[in-house]
Design brief:
alpha/beta, four-stranded antiparallel beta sheet, 12 helices, 11 strands, 15% strand, seven-stranded mixed beta sheet, binds pyridoxal-5'-phosphate, single chain
């Protein structure tokens, strides 16, 4: 316990992590004791797994006929969704003949703020990083729809095949949410698959005050979401939903002789490994099931609203502090800011803010991380934490200024 990553601390806001919950931890413990393998079969854990997928569909407005699977996290959820997209849009049997049989090179699109796991996914799918075009954003860090249309037209003209657009509901840098309705319309008109990366923001759909921000998410062909973020279940728990269940299954189904279904008994259920890459899979559903049963969806929705309100409060007190500045306007729960005394150039600002971040962590004050947004380096607090209170945010502002002043006073080589 003395040296954890720290994400059960009220002032842990680094990168993007949920802050877990006690019932979920008990769920993991009980799942290990119960010992079920979710590769498939007709048994209690498999039914609970499907119940949790059903609840995920309800939370984001997906139809009951959609399919889904629980995976380790958002990166795996995205690769499952993008695999189905590639196979549906390839116009050849990619599973049988491989990507070399695809006649026109497939093109995928996302904003220049897209998460790095999509690059890994596209590379792993054999399409190559260049198949993923990064489209510029508007001033709010949302994908620019007219630039997207222009890129699609350009690719068609030069003989490529536009296949899929990846929208983001909550970018990792700033929490920006793409215009999901606009993307759904464009995808329909251009005959593209719409995958939405909702690892951060899909669950805003259950937050009464902020649900409007993700309107249109229910129109996606595939959607990733992360119960280990805003449902606060312990790592690991990600989920992908696919509107066309048959397309989902046909991307992964293989029935070897030793996994033949039977008419009765254990092997009479659906083989859940037909919906993803894993054969053996742990009973992740239990910690989600228990957390939702204990707390209810409404409470998790209120906590999302609370984190978003906290990020706006933090932005307000940063704006009111003369030595601090916001580097991007707060959108949902991510605040990008920096210590900025007069007369420092970019390089010096980066050096002093990096040192502030390290001291905040090393002194045990708070864990924030850093990033660079359109060339501007900044500190970044992602408040996905049900333990955070206003005092914690006020302390962050005071301590950022104190440490910044100390560093300037020490006259380090900046
Ligand atoms: C927008 C987005 N997509 C994907 C991921 C990857 O999710 P995971 O870390 O659960 O694999 C993250 C992680 O923070 C993310 O913010």
């Amino acid at each position: 316990m003395p040296y954890p990553m720290g994400n059960i601390h009220p002032r842990f806001w680094s990168w993007y992590m949920g802050s877990s919950n006690y019932t979920g931890a008990i769920g993991d413990f009980l799942a290990a004791i119960q010992g079920s393998n979710l590769g498939g079969g007709n048994h209690a854990a498999a039914l609970m797994d499907q119940q949790v997928i059903g609840w995920c569909k309800e939370m984001v407005g997906f139809p009951a006929s959609a399919s889904g699977t629980l995976v380790s996290g958002g990166s795996m959820a995205n690769i499952i969704g993008l695999t189905v997209a590639r196979n549906v849009k390839a116009d050849v049997d990619v599973r049988e003949r491989g990507v070399r049989a695809i006649e026109k090179p497939l093109r995928f699109y996302g904003s220049d703020q897209i998460h790095s796991c999509h690059r890994k996914a596209i590379e792993t799918l054999g399409l190559g990083n260049q198949a993923l075009r990064r489209i510029p954003c508007d001033s709010g860090f949302r994908i620019d729809l007219s630039a997207l249309r222009a890129a699609i037209a350009e690719d068609r003209a030069e003989g490529s095949q536009p296949a899929c657009v990846i929208g983001t509901a909550g970018t990792v840098n700033t929490g920006a949410i793409d215009d999901l309705r606009g993307l759904a319309r464009l995808a329909r008109e251009e005959d593209l698959w719409l995958h939405v990366d909702g690892c951060i923001g899909a669950l805003i759909a259950i937050a009464p005050e902020n649900a409007f921000r993700v309107e249109g998410i229910e129109e996606a062909d595939s959607l990733s979401l992360d119960p280990h973020k805003w449902l606060h279940v312990p790592f690991e728990a990600g989920c992908v939903l696919i509107r066309d269940a048959a397309a989902h299954r046909s991307a992964f189904v293989v029935t070897p002789e030793y996994l033949e279904p039977s008419a009765r008994a254990l092997a009479s259920g659906d083989w859940l490994n037909d919906y993803g890459l894993q054969t053996s899979r742990g009973f992740k559903a239990l910690k989600i099931w228990m957390s939702l049963k204990e707390h209810g969806i409404e409470k998790f929705g209120r906590l999302i609203d609370q984190n978003i309100a906290q990020a706006h409060y933090l932005s307000d007190i940063i704006e009111a502090a003369p030595l601090l500045e916001l580097v991007a306007a707060a959108n949902i729960n991510i605040v990008c800011y920096r210590y900025r005394p007069a007369g420092m150039n970019r390089a010096a600002l980066k050096a002093v803010n990096t040192e502030i971040m390290l001291r905040l962590q090393e002194e045990g004050v708070a864990a924030v991380s850093d990033t660079t947004i359109h060339c501007e380096h900044c500190l970044r607090a992602a408040i996905n934490n049900h333990r955070t209170k206003s005092d914690d945010l006020e302390l962050l502002v005071r301590e950022t200024i104190r440490i910044g002043n100390d560093i300037v006073g020490e006259n380090l080589a900046l």
